[in-house]
Write a structure and sequence with these properties.
Helix content is about 65%, strand content about 0%. The protein contains 15 helices and no strands. It has helices spanning about 20-40, 60-65, 70-90, 95-120, 135-145, 155-170, 180-190, 200-220, 225-250, 265, 275-300, 305-310, 315-330, 340-370, 370-375. The longest helix is centred in the last third of the chain and has 28 residues, at about 340-370. The two termini are about 30 Å apart.
């Protein structure tokens, strides 16, 4: 791929939206809703340890494992859109510093949303909980960091991502005392996971960078859907193969042991923080997912609207559905962790009925509004 930016309104940088990106973001958002519905309604969470999960059956395993795609999907799609947004602004004549500052503001806004709205929404806003750093903050910092390298050629960005992925397992060996605040904040913000943060920036930033690399192909270089699909599947196959090699080595790049190839434990290496195996595996999974939506868009485009709607306003969808669940389940205690897989999917269905009209409404508001904060959501 050649990182070529052409100042043409007819090219990628003249487009307002990419349907398959919106659809995949919406798909990931719905998977996140499913995970949150499980968290509130599924009794398995009464004894499930996210750091060392054990599942009673395939249904519970599949329900939990599907959510593993969410964070890689969010980070990669954010990286892709940061790349596209920056270059689109440059093509339209925006100074580089101004284009970067716009993205930095967006990243800072995401950190603010995490620390205020998201943290407190888990408990239905019963308390104001600032002292937690989560996935939205990780996306925000990754977005800010990405502005520093966004003009680099895709080869350099790829090299940066690979170096981070390879070094991160070594950084996990650093000993620190979580009782010492500065050590806890520093290590859990960037390297490892714990009470303060489950989503350390470094491994997730590497996926944001990889998202920007894939965007160079998806949104600019690969001119046809066939080319996008073929190249995506080839890259994903390579990443899957590398992930399997790392996992079968049972050493470097692994955190949890596994019983055998194809077992539950083979796929469930650690997510908090992600191992090298997990990052390679889910990088490939995201790339395959985007290729699938490109293909489906040629076959059944009208059926994909259910994904496009939340995918056009992903932050709104995430923040509002989490708040609604927190208020009407956690705060009231109504059916809190009393069900199973079936009840989880009933919760998803009800929330989709609530959220889809809200997303349609808010997308219209955002498109028309010039308000700074509404445009940031």
């Amino acid at each position: 791929m050649k990182n070529i930016v052409k100042p043409s309104g007819n090219g990628a940088f003249g487009k307002q939206r990419f349907d398959y990106i919106d659809q995949f973001r919406g798909f990931v958002g719905i998977l996140m809703l499913m995970g949150h519905s499980s968290y509130y309604f599924n009794a398995i969470w009464l004894h499930l340890d996210p750091l060392d999960p054990l599942f009673p059956d395939w249904a519970q395993f599949a329900l939990r494992y599907a959510g593993y795609l969410c964070a890689p999907g969010f980070l990669m799609m954010n990286g892709a859109m940061v790349w596209w947004s920056f270059h689109r602004r440059i093509v339209k004549g925006t100074p580089e510093g101004t284009a970067r500052w716009h993205l930095i503001q967006r990243g800072l806004f995401l950190i603010l949303v995490q620390m205020t709205w998201v943290n407190s929404s888990w408990g239905g806003f019963r308390t104001f909980h600032l002292w937690h750093f989560g996935v939205i903050s990780s996306i925000g910092i990754s977005m800010i960091l990405l502005t520093a390298i966004i003009k680099q050629r895709w080869q350099i960005r790829l090299l940066i991502a690979v170096i981070i992925l390879l070094v991160h397992p070594l950084l996990l060996r650093i000993a620190y005392n979580p009782e010492i605040i500065w050590q806890e904040v520093l290590m859990q913000t960037f390297v490892t996971a714990g009470k303060f943060n489950k989503y350390p920036v470094l491994p997730w930033f590497s996926l944001a960078v990889l998202g920007s690399v894939m965007a160079t192909g998806w949104l600019e270089v690969w001119k046809t859907d066939k080319k996008r699909i073929v190249m995506s599947l080839a890259i994903a196959a390579t990443a899957f193969a590398l992930a399997i090699i790392v996992r079968m080595g049972r050493g470097y790049g692994n955190i949890f042991p596994f019983s055998g190839f194809g077992s539950w434990s083979f796929f469930l290496d650690q997510k908090y923080p992600p191992s090298l195996f997990m990052n390679l595996w889910f990088f490939a999974s995201v790339v395959v997912g985007v290729a699938i939506f490109i293909a489906l868009g040629k076959i059944i485009p009208k059926w994909l609207v259910v994904f496009s709607i939340p995918g056009k306003v992903p932050l709104f969808f995430y923040a509002v559905h989490l708040a609604v669940l927190g208020i009407f389940v956690k705060r009231t205690g109504w059916f809190y962790r009393e069900g199973g897989v079936t009840e989880t999917f009933i919760g998803v269905a009800v929330m989709m009925v609530v959220m889809l009209p809200l997303c349609v409404w808010f997308f219209g508001v955002k498109r028309r509004s010039k308000n700074y904060f509404i445009r940031m959501i």
